[in-house]
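Recap for those who missed Tuesday's class. We walked through two folding examples back to back. For each one, the amino acid string is listed first and its predicted structure tokens come directly after. Nothing is annotated here on purpose, so try labeling regions yourself before you check the end of the notes.
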Amino acid sequence: MRTRGNPWLRLGVDSLWLGVEAQRVMTLRMMKLAAGGPAAAAEAQLMVTEKMRAAAETQAQVVTSVMTGKGHLAPSRAVASYRRKVRANGRRLSKG
């Protein structure tokens, strides 16, 4: 699908992929949590701190976009930021 010339379509496709990737990460996390033990406790704590950090970073990014007159880029930047974080979690959780 060609989305390069249409920013709204690109945002939609990127949002769709964010949902797919997030579902994969949730599955991998639930498997790790279900296994229990110290690794599960560490993952639960990491999950909460990562979400708080990602939300703060994205909020700052949106505010910066708006204040610099580039508010129209905020949604795509936010989705791209979350996708990077979700993909990194997927890679980390797939390893072990």
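Example two. Treat it independently of the first, because the proteins are unrelated.
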Amino acid sequence: MGAVRRVGLGRVETTLLWPLHHKVLDFRNREPVLGDVWAVDVLDHLEVDRRDVRGTSGDRYLTLLRAAWIDARVRAWVAAHPEGTVVHPGCGLDARALRVGVPGRGLWVDLDLPEVVALRRGLLPEPRGYRLVAGSVTDPAWWGRVPAGAPVLVVAEGLFEYLGAAGVRGVLERVASRFTGGGEVVFDVVAPWVGRAGRAAGWPMHGLGDVRLPERWCPGLELVEAYSVVGDFGSVPERPLRVLYRVLSVWPGGRDAMRVLRFRLRGRAGAGPGG
């Protein structure tokens, strides 16, 4: 993968280092959740200011459980739609396309800001049927590069929290109006109190309390699943953190601190269950 690269990103963009660091810690754990060896390879080729990641280790299972749950849904969707398109905006340095596999006769599109794509390119293999695109998820121009007629799965992880309601609504409306073949949209949200805490710490985060709100924004969306990351405490291999998550899950605000939502996207021709 070449020489070691110095990481020089903006403050918000450096958050892509957090899940990378968490996956490396997980790989070295006796009971890994993901076992993502790609993360180890990538971090080994980056010159990182450890202060950017050191303080995030305690809540790493929020990242790991979220990623594992999304991986399972993406893997199942790709197996059912080998001709489909997976769009992963805000991909960062994530190796999901390699972990779960690209659609056999379709396309996988990873998207991120130009500076992130410049850092990522060459660090991870680009298999057949894979495309890495530089752009912003809120810019309508790049969507024209994605096939509109095939079933589509849009996956946004650790992204929508930083867009705000108007930004998220704009993206969902564009997806619902463009893709005629149906499919799914999967993204994570944090509770309003988490968003307030993030802003108090200087991060431009926003929470979503009503998980049905996207349905009212876009009639073409139908909520089919809402996964509570904290509520999945039984999947945490380390007992102290498993107990902490279990205690937090008793409180609705704690249980809903981070959720992953899966929406069915009804195409104009009337897609069936699962897109």
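Answers for example two:
DSSP finds ten helices and nine strands in the chain.
The CA atoms of residues 184 and 264 lie 5 Å apart.
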